[in-house]
Every structure is written in structure tokens, then in C-alpha cells.
Inverse folding.
């Protein structure tokens, strides 16, 4: 099931790229926006292939000043994600960090995490195993809490 559009943060892009699954985003969403601040963070990550974003991921810059609350509370990438979603009148964001997720919800946005994205991909027949994908992310150094892994594996029907 494809969804309209999402604005993606740095962490999930690096995590998905690290396991060769960055393409899931464009298969699950009609549009994927990447704020300029996120693109800059990716460029700074020398070990990430995500510095070369696929053409289907659209990099956008801010057209208005960011809300001071966002810039005070969050890192530039997360602030840019929420700002872009609000400016573009989009409802969905891809953020893994707890504080960013909480603020996004306060602004009325629907929050996806990498785990949920993988579950949706499996449900759509685009991914064989959520557990294997998340374990591969962990092997690449991406932090995933055991509770999140257990939730995702259970929801994906890989555990009871």
C-alpha cells in the first residue's frame, strides 16, 4: 500500500542505506522529501553511501524561518524534518529519535520510525524479514532498543 508523502530524517536514511534498503522509501511513498539540513548531515557522514541520494528523494530547503522551539529543542536535521512537513503541509515524518518523535506528534504529525517502515514493507511484500533487517542495522552500528525489535518482529508475524 503506497502512501502519499513523507519527510525523512538522517538516521533512518543511513540505517536503510546501510542494509541496501533505501529504495523501500520510494516503493512505499509517492514522494520522499529530504530537508537540506538532512542532506548536509548525510554529506558529512563519510562512511555512508546515502550521501548520494537517489533521484527519487527530493531535497528541499526551508522557505521560511524555522520555529525557534524546533531549533532550540532538536538537532538541525530533526528540526528541518518537522519544519519541512509543516511548510509542505505533509502529515508524515520518518524520525527515530525519541525527542524528535515527541515534538513531531505535538505538531500533529504522524510519525514513522524505521521499524514501522520495515513492518509496512514486509506487509507489502517488499521485504523478507524485519528481524534480519533490524539485526543487520544493529551490526552496522545503528542503535535499536530490544523492545523496538521485539515489537517489530511480533507485529510482522516473525515472533509470537
Amino acid at each position: 500500500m503506497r502512501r502519499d508523502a513523507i519527510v525523512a530524517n538522517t538516521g533512518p536514511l543511513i540505517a536503510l542505506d546501510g542494509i541496501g534498503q533505501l529504495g523501500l522509501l520510494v516503493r512505499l511513498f509517492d514522494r520522499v522529501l529530504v530537508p537540506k539540513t538532512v542532506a548536509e548531515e548525510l554529506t558529512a557522514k563519510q562512511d555512508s553511501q546515502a550521501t548520494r541520494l537517489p533521484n527519487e528523494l527530493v531535497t528541499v530547503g526551508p522557505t521560511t524561518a524555522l520555529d525557534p522551539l524546533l531549533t532550540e529543542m532538536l538537532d538541525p536535521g530533526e528540526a528541518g524534518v518537522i519544519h519541512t512537513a509543516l511548510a509542505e503541509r505533509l502529515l508524515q515524518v520518518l524520525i527515530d529519535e525519541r525527542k524528535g518523535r515527541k515534538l513531531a506528534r505535538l505538531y500533529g504529525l504522524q510519525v514513522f520510525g524505521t521499524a514501522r517502515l520495515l513492518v509496512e514493507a514486509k506487509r507489502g511484500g517488499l521485504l523478507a524479514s524485519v528481524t534480519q533487517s533490524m539485526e543487520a542495522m544493529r551490526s552496522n552500528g545503528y542503535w535499536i532498543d530490544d523492545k523496538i525489535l521485539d515489537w517489530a518482529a511480533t507485529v510482522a508475524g516473525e515472533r509470537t
Remarks:
- The mean pLDDT is 90.
